[in-house]
Design a protein that fits this description.
heterodimer, A: 162 residues, 79% helix, B: 300 residues, mainly alpha, 3 domains, three-stranded antiparallel beta sheet, 12 helices, 67% helix, elongated
């Protein structure tokens, strides 16, 4: 059982590392930071998968924790390479961006416009589904952003310049 | 009484050389009280021409940061560092997603200038270069002329990666997403091809200056059509993973993350603007995918 979960998480980490590197290249990061971007991607999505698989955590909460981990990892990497944290953190959390939820929301909206009978039960179902997708998209995004800037919010409370 | 107050102001300015919001107000008050009084930070008052040059450099740096996908807080922080490092006493910066306004002041002089900012193309390497330049300027290692030259160099550096490397790796990244959604190796193959072709179309359309929303819709349509062939040719019977993963290269990850980042940092209107941009791009993706579904009859 545990071995299965471990394999699942490792497989998940492997593919999300590749996804993170792909997006890092799209964002034109300096080439020597690519391994660090891969690490950030693997840690983020892998940790989220592990939290969901092991503790049955809802995806929103797991995303918040995983993104916070990526934020702190980014802080360490930024100190090591002396470049802004965003270079590692943004490709690192990109695999967790709720793209599927976002456009399932949009597909739901399109589907609603095509309903023939507004009083039908299926109409209510589509509406509810779409609303749930929209809310989950928003919550996951909020979790991601909070996780990314958690190190700043917690440790750099005095704005140094502005 | 006035003397005590001035002493208090100087102590405050000495203690906080960059000035927080409260010391800043005191500083301005101090300046109106005695015009001749030397600045607490010991900077030489700049001439009108120098201010013009500095504000131009600041606008240039800020404009590039905005275009390359920096969030509002980073733009404001870096531009401020740039301006004060080049000799200004203070900068007031209004960051909006489509324009940048800066007031730079030094001694009794001040200048305000606005610049229009259009286009978004995430470029981490250039963002990093501008950020480290702003730190060099802050430490006083780089003067105005050198800063201008370096900004020119940064704005003309070519990308780190060959366009075919980008096509291949972005395709593979979407293939990786299809694996995260539980596809098999056939799905991996078809998703990689679909996303790669879509990325190629995106590059070509971008080169021809198409509207970004049209680019997104067309690319989603292309990716959806290629991904749906997996079901039409019975290459794989589960096209959902391929259809959903192959358009993920278009997901506006950076605008959406920046939107929430801006909200948390207090840039409310910028957060709304970026959020709506992300929403419209998501809608374009859904529209393109929808057209592909209608054309091929594959259901996801």
């Amino acid at each position: 059982m545990n071995g299965e979960v471990l394999f699942f998480v490792l497989r998940d980490s492997f593919w999300s590392a590749i996804a993170a590197v792909g997006f890092a290249i799209l964002f034109n990061v300096p080439p020597y930071t690519l391994p660090a971007c891969a690490l950030a991607g693997a840690v983020g999505h892998g940790l989220r998968a592990a939290l969901i698989a092991l503790f049955g955590m809802p995806i929103e909460a797991a995303t918040l924790l995983a993104a916070t981990a990526v934020g702190f990892l980014g802080e360490l990497l930024a100190r090591h390479y002396h470049i802004p944290r965003l270079v590692f953190v943004v490709p690192g959390v990109i695999p967790m961006v709720p793209g599927v939820f976002a456009y399932r929301t949009m597909l739901g909206i399109f589907e609603m416009t095509g309903l023939a009978d507004l009083s039908a039960v299926e109409g209510a179902e589509v509406l509810l589904q779409t609303a749930v997708y929209a809310i989950r998209t928003g919550l996951i995004l909020a979790g991601l952003a909070f996780g990314i800037i958690a190190p700043n919010l917690l440790f750099r409370r005095q704005r140094p310049i502005i | 009484m006035a003397y005590t107050f001035r002493l208090f102001c100087n102590i405050m300015l000495g203690a906080y050389p960059h000035g927080s919001a409260s010391t800043r107000n005191l500083k301005q008050l101090d300046k109106t009280m005695t015009e001749e009084l030397e600045d607490g930070n010991g900077k030489r008052p700049l001439s009108h021409e120098e201010l013009t040059d500095i504000i131009d450099l600041c606008l240039w740096a800020g404009q590039m940061l905005l275009q390359y996908g920096a969030n509002s807080f980073r733009v404001e922080e870096s531009v401020h560092r740039f301006g004060t490092g080049l000799g200004c006493d203070w900068l007031d910066i209004i960051v909006r997603t489509e324009s940048l306004t800066i007031t730079a002041s030094s001694g009794g002089e001040f200048r305000t200038k606005t610049r229009r900012v259009v286009g978004l193309g995430v470029n981490m390497a250039r963002m990093t270069a501008i950020n480290s330049l702003s730190r060099e300027v802050e430490r006083g290692e780089v003067d105005r002329y050198e800063a201008r030259q370096k900004l020119q160099e940064i704005s003309t550096t070519s990308g780190n990666y060959n366009r075919w490397v980008i096509v291949g790796m972005v395709g593979l990244a979407c293939g990786a997403f299809s694996q995260l959604f539980g596809g098999d190796w056939r799905i991996l193959l078809i998703t990689t091809v679909a996303a790669g072709v879509s990325m190629f179309v995106r590059q070509e359309m971008h080169k021809r200056q198409f509207n970004p929303f049209i680019i997104t819709t067309v690319c989603a349509l292309v990716a959806g059509l290629i991904a749906s062939t997996s079901a039409l040719t019975r290459f794989s019977t589960a096209p959902e993973a391929a259809m959903t993963a192959s358009v993920l290269l278009l997901v506006p990850g950076v605008p959406l993350i920046n939107a929430t980042h801006d909200f948390l940092r207090g840039y409310m209107s910028n957060g709304i603007t970026r959020g709506v941009l992300g929403l419209i791009i998501s809608m374009c993706i859904a529209l393109g995918l929808m057209i592909a579904i209608l054309l091929t009859g594959v259901s996801i």
